[in-house]
Amino acid sequence: MSAPSDTIRSLEPYSTRFGRELQEVHADLLGLQDMVEKWQRVQNLVSRETVRAIWTRHILDSLQLLPLMGQSASAPVHILDIGSGGGFPAIPLAIALKSSGARIDLIESNGRKCAFLNAAIREFALPGTRVHNARIEGVAPEKLGEINVITSRALAPLPLLLDYALPFFGPSTRAYFHKGREFREELQQADSSFAFDVVHHKSLIDPDGVILELTHLQAL
CA of 125: how far to CAs of 82, 99, 173, in Å? Predict the structure, then answer.
């Protein structure tokens, strides 16, 4: 585990986007790390290979979306996180944007993981964040309203991920998907069923990973 001084320094590049004191955000994110470690003993929230690197592999990996989104505390945003699992990237983003008026909807079908997500929302007082215990295709897009940003991490191959995301896409919606070294093959597979614009952002955490930024998603 990183020392507190190291973890607070790792947040400094994002500090102008928090809208509250860096120390407050740092304390909440350390609390989230502790909470994940405790729940991990009885619930598989993150992979066993990364449980000793929650800060870097999960929290910082989530926060790297902030500058890509161009998001700051002065610009409320509505984020939809699909297949939320253990809450990454949605819960770190909710903590970071806590004072911004951001709305964050999480969709997760596993009831035990939803229990963790709801506990985190209560623990860190995230009133703009809500959990939908349902399959993605079981959530009616009209009940959520306009979505500005869709996120997902380690959920599915890109063609299936785009199939899940499409009903929630509007003209100005952007999606940010964490992907690994096979992302080019997944893009080629998706090209046969979908039209979209895509920008590749090199991951700051995974040397083999990227963040795919997609806009103008349509089915062919």
Answer: 21, 11, 27
3-state secondary structure 99-135: CCCCEEEEEECCHHHHHHHHHHHHHCCCCCEEEEECC
Q: What is the pLDDT of residues 33-83, one digit of tens each?
A: 999 999 999 888 988 888 889 999 999 999 999 999 985 545 689 999 999
Q: Quote the radius of gyration of the chain (alpha carbons, Å).
A: 16
Backbone phi and psi for residue 115, each to the nearest 5 degrees, phi listed first: -60, -40
Q: Which fold has domain 4-219?
A: Rossmann fold (3.40.50)
The H-or-E segment that residue 198 falls in is: strand 194-202
Per the DSSP assignment, residues forming a β-bridge with 200 are 212
pTM: 0.94
Burial of 10 per CB tally in 10 Å (0-12, 13-18, 19+): middle
In DSSP notation, 160-190 reads HHHHHHGGG--TT-EEEEEE-TTHHHHHHHH
Domain spans, the chain: 4-219
pLDDT digits (tens, 9 = 90+) for 105-156: 999 999 999 999 999 999 999 989 999 999 999 999 999 999 999 999 989 9
